[in-house]
């Protein structure tokens, strides 16, 4: 792999891993963020408990797992592809259920698109395995 591409791949994956681990741990697991709870309420899932965990905590745990998958499976495109699909899906979801969030600073459009394209950059820069056909 070209050293420049290797560095781009490393930094994009490291950044994404840190983002997902932080977003899962701090706002969801440690602080049970009000905006996160509001989004769950908008879906009418407030009372749903899964294995003793609320939806916000489950989402936080899933984000942490995805963050570690991005870091640990650094030769695989699938964690980045999942990231792309999640970012687009969650962006559409927020636009439908909580459109007021789109006017906030660092709103879902800004953050989700930034994460989406950072994952695309990670897939393109990974020459150990070809990126999916629609990426190249």
TrEMBL record:
InterPro entries: DoxX-like. The keyword Flavoprotein does not apply. The chain crosses the membrane at residues 12-30, 50-73, 80-99, 105-124. Keywords: Membrane, Transmembrane, Transmembrane helix. Pfam families: DoxX_3. This is DoxX family protein.
């Amino acid at each position: 792999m070209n050293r420049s591409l290797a560095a781009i791949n490393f930094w994009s994956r490291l950044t994404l891993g840190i983002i997902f681990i932080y977003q899962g741990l701090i706002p969801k697991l440690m602080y049970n963020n009000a905006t996160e709870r509001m989004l769950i309420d908008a879906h009418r899932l407030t009372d749903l408990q899964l294995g003793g965990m609320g939806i916000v905590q489950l989402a936080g745990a899933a984000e942490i797992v995805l963050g570690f998958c991005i870091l640990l499976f650094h030769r695989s495109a699938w964690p980045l592809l999942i990231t792309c699909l999640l970012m687009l899906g969650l962006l559409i979801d927020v636009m439908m259920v909580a459109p007021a969030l789109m006017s906030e600073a660092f709103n879902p459009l800004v953050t989700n698109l930034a994460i989406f394209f950072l994952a695309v950059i990670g897939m393109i820069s990974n020459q150990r395995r070809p990126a999916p056909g629609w990426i190249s």
